[in-house]
Amino acid sequence: MDIVIVGAGPVGLYASYYAGFRAMQCLVLEALPFTGGQIATFYADSTIYDVAGFPRVTGAELLERLERQARSFDTEIRLGARVTGIDATAQGVRIRWAPEDDAAAAHTIDCSAVLLTTGIGRFAPQPLRLPAIEPWLGRGLDYHVSDPSRFAGRRVLVAGGTQRGVELAVDLAERGATVFLIHRRDRLPVPEALRTRLDASTATFLPYRELAALEGEARVTRAVLQDRRSGDRETLAVEAVLPCFGYAADKDTLGNFGVPIEDGAIPVDSRMAAAAGIWAAGDAATYPGKVRVLAADFGEACTAVNNIAATILPGASVFPGYSSHTGGAPRETR
Ligand SMILES: Cc1cc2nc3c(=O)[nH]c(=O)nc-3n(C[C@H](O)[C@H](O)[C@H](O)COP(=O)(O)OP(=O)(O)OC[C@H]3O[C@@H](n4cnc5c(N)ncnc54)[C@H](O)[C@@H]3O)c2cc1C
Questions:
Q1: Residue-wise over 6-30: b if at least 16 C-beta within 10 A, else e?
Q2: Distance 68 CA to ligand 1 centre (A)
Q3: Which residue ranges make up each domain of the chain?
Q4: What does the buried/exposed string (b/e) look like for 215-237 if buried means 16 or more CB atoms within 10 Å of the residue's CB?
Q5: CA–CA distance, 201 with 43 (Å, rounded to integer)
Q6: Measured on CA atoms in the order 281, 286, 290, 293, is the torsion positive or negative?
Q7: Pairwise CA distance, residues 103 & 164, whole Å
Q8: Per-residue pLDDT tens for 138-168?
Q9: Separation of 82 CA from ligand 1 center, angstroms?
């Protein structure tokens, strides 16, 4: 593997396009079950006004275009994959990673260079705050849904009326699950079009409900719900409980990457290099005069990937050539 990109936020997506343009073998690892980083997590429906060439663009549209551009080349984007450490090797670096839904499974990948586009940190799901809840993890309680098709024919409770929660409820219902969606209020803070899809789906929306307890033996078989207005409790037979209360950034993993950290980011030089084989771009990187906006971040991804190409590909130059001269095809032949 030539290059592993850690994080499929906007910068990781754009970097993976450039890795393809430089004909490098590239793998992108993303902890979340979706691409798009902060944009997808916090402001997909907001309008952005300061990206070059787009007087106004919604977060969702910008991401759709970035993803399409990233997929111009044969790059794998592996979702639900958290990078836990980086070790130096004689040929480059060894990446340690684990699936988010099976933290005990440790995997490694050897590559010539790693580009950290980890932004403000790995986004971890906000946990259920209930006593004695941990033992249910992996036994019916799951924060990460890597394979939604496994819920077909099952009774599933999605807890939380976030955009992700409503999308998941609709998706699982469309795949043949019997879905219940609970939310603390009756108004779901999601776009009208998504609310319409929910109403048209077979999912049952239960407003004003909170999860009070999980019950079962080897696995969860029942969820106890409490009505926030009356305090009344009801028991729902379910086989899976999927909390969707949003995400919070967890910067801690940056400390495992073997690079110094300053003010929560990785110091880099003008090539975006942090240490031997380790590079960083976007919100994860820092240097004097850093401006934390997408316009600058995209330039950093371009600078990082082209300098990586010049470092690891024999005879390659930093300048990538003009895409308009190659018809979009990579210049290098491998
Ligand atoms: C509400 C809001 C509004 C904004 N509005 C604008 C705006 O109008 N204009 C503008 O230019 N900028 C705006 N920004 C800032 C912009 O979104 C960020 O600068 C940009 O998202 C940074 O992109 P990134 O790819 O570097 O990081 P992120 O978007 O943070 O993506 C990093 C990705 O890396 C993943 N990751 C982290 N650690 C690991 C790990 N160990 N293993 C695997 N994956 C990992 C994360 O899960 C995440 O998906 C806004 C930000 C917010 C929060």
A1: bbbbbbbbbbbbbbbbbbbbbbbbb
A2: 18
A3: 3-124+248-326, 128-245
A4: ebeeebebbebbeeeeeeeeebe
A5: 25
A6: positive
A7: 22
A8: 899 998 887 888 999 999 999 999 988 999 9
A9: 16
Alpha-carbon distance of 3 to 25, in angstroms, equals 6
The string of pLDDT tens digits covering residues 63-94 is 999 999 999 998 999 999 999 999 999 999 99
For ligand 1, is residue 253 a contact (CB within 6 Å)? yes
> Of how many residues is the chain composed?
334
- 172, two tokens: 């699982």
CA distance 199 to 220: 27
Name the more confident of 264 and 297.
297
The residue whose CA has the least distance to atom 13 of ligand 1 is: 293
Token pair listed for 261: 């950290």
Looking at every residue in the chain, the average pLDDT score rounds to: 93
Nearest to 56 by CA among 44, 46, 47: 47
3-124+248-326 matches 128-245 in fold: yes
| 7 close to 30: Cβ distance less than 8 angstroms | yes
Residues 54 and 57: their CA atoms lie apart, in Å, by: 6
In this structure, whether the domain defined by 3-124+248-326 belongs to CATH 3.30.70.890 is answered with no
The answer, as to whether pTM is greater than 0.70, is yes
Cβ atoms of 118 and 284 closer than 8 Å: yes
- In CATH, the architecture of 128-245 is 3-Layer(bba) Sandwich (3.50)
**Pocket lining: 283 vs ligand 1, CB cutoff 6 Å:** yes
> DSSP of 210-244, one letter per residue?
EEEEEEESSSEEEEEEEETTT--EEEEE-SEEEE-
Strands 93-99, 81-88: pairing is antiparallel
